[in-house]
């Protein structure tokens, strides 16, 4: 029986690759670096399935190059903004992603970023290393506390919900949320959160966390106008997508004390150039998109993506098929 042809766009753990090679003829880009665009377009031709990452643009151009044999695109990510899902649906191509698995890990990092910037951990580490740590001073390296604070979440899906549950232990006084301007009684009853308009969420929150999806309505929503609505003492956290933030406006807000600090795990572009102005600020912590970076999470994401691909090509229900 002739094996189907698949393209794997990056190195993946050996156990996952072994499973694929038992079932398919595998063409893999054997590198931890992003597959060059020209190579992807060349390799995707006449493939039955693609296993990709969020760095790989599976758009109309790539789908055209793949041709009529392509039946499944499985991405090792929750977000699918790098995949033209509308075009895939039109062509009858199934799309799989990896929701739920990275929820706990990303929520952990969100709390970590929030604590790092509010308690000035990175700044303090640099001060100790650079010899700025002198005699104990009463108000030196002080920052805001979560105890008694108001936390606003823009987007309250799986990750936002997990963040709320973890932050409850820190004595947060009030949680506000906004999800596409829709009030959800289930959130309010089960999590003890309160709906707020986007304006009020920005205006009232001591900590603002972006954990929304990137789409037309959220692209660039955290801009000059949004930052000016926030408290001058507020801290902004972004663990969703870099595209929801206007980074020039964020730099201006941070460097002109419009807001107090920011922690971001996602940027535009990725990686963020090392000479980007955000890296020059003491009140900004930038991490390299490591929200899901636990060994357990990354392995489980990979195996779910593999199962999505196998089931899709076998004509079976995918464990996590993305639906429009």
Strand content: 15-25%
Tell me, rounded to a whole number, the average pLDDT.
96
Structural class: alpha/beta
The low-confidence parts are: none
Strand order of the largest sheet: 8-7-6-9-10-11-12
Q: What composes the largest sheet?
A: 7 strands, parallel
State the distance separating the first and last CA atoms.
Answer: 34 Å
Write structural notes for this entry.
The protein is α/β, with parallel strands linked by helices. The protein contains twelve helices and twelve strands. It has helices spanning 14-23, 37-43, 60-66, 85-91, 103-118, 121-129, 158-167, 185-191, 198-204, 224-229, 247-255, 295-313, and strands spanning 4-8, 24-28, 49-52, 72-75, 94-96, 150-154, 174-178, 193-195, 207-210, 235-238, 261-264, 284-286. The strands form two sheets. The chain has a seven-stranded parallel beta sheet, with helices on both faces. Strands 2-1-3-4-5 form a five-stranded parallel beta sheet, sandwiched between helices. Helix 1 (14-23) packs parallel to helix 12 and helix 5 packs across helix 7 (158-167). The protein starts with a strand and ends in an 11-residue tail after the last helix.
């Amino acid at each position: 029986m002739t094996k189907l042809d698949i393209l794997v766009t990056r190195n993946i753990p050996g156990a996952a690759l072994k499973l694929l090679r038992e079932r398919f003829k595998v063409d893999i880009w054997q590198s931890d670096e992003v597959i060059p665009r020209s190579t992807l377009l060349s390799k995707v031709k006449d493939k039955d399935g693609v296993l990709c990452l969020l760095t790989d643009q599976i758009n109309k151009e790539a789908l055209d190059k793949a041709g009529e044999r392509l039946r499944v695109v499985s991405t090792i990510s929750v977000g699918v903004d790098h995949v033209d899902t509308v075009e895939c649906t039109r062509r009858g191509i199934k799309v799989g992603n990896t929701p739920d698995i990275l929820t706990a890990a990303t929520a952990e990092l969100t709390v970590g970023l929030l604590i790092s910037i509010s308690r000035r951990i990175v700044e303090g580490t640099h001060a100790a290393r650079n010899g700025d740590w002198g005699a104990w001073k009463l108000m030196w390296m002080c920052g805001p506390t979560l105890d008694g604070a108001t936390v606003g979440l823009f987007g309250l899906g799986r990750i936002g919900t997990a963040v709320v549950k973890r932050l409850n232990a820190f004595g947060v006084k009030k949680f506000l949320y906004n999800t596409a301007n829709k009030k959800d009684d289930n959130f309010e009853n089960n999590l003890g959160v309160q709906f707020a308009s986007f304006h009020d969420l920005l205006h009232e929150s001591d900590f603002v966390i972006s954990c929304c999806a990137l789409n037309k309505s959220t692209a660039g929503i955290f801009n000059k106008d949004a930052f000016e609505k926030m408290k001058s003492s507020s801290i902004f956290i972004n663990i969703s997508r870099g595209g929801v933030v206007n980074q020039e406006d964020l730099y201006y807000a941070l460097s002109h004390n419009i807001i107090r600090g920011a922690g971001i795990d996602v940027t535009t572009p990725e990686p963020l150039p090392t000479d980007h102005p955000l890296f020059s600020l003491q009140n900004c912590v930038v991490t390299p998109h490591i929200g899901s970076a636990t060994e357990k999470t990354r392995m489980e994401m990979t195996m779910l993506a593999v199962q999505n691909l196998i089931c899709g090509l076998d004509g079976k229900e995918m464990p996590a098929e993305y639906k429009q």
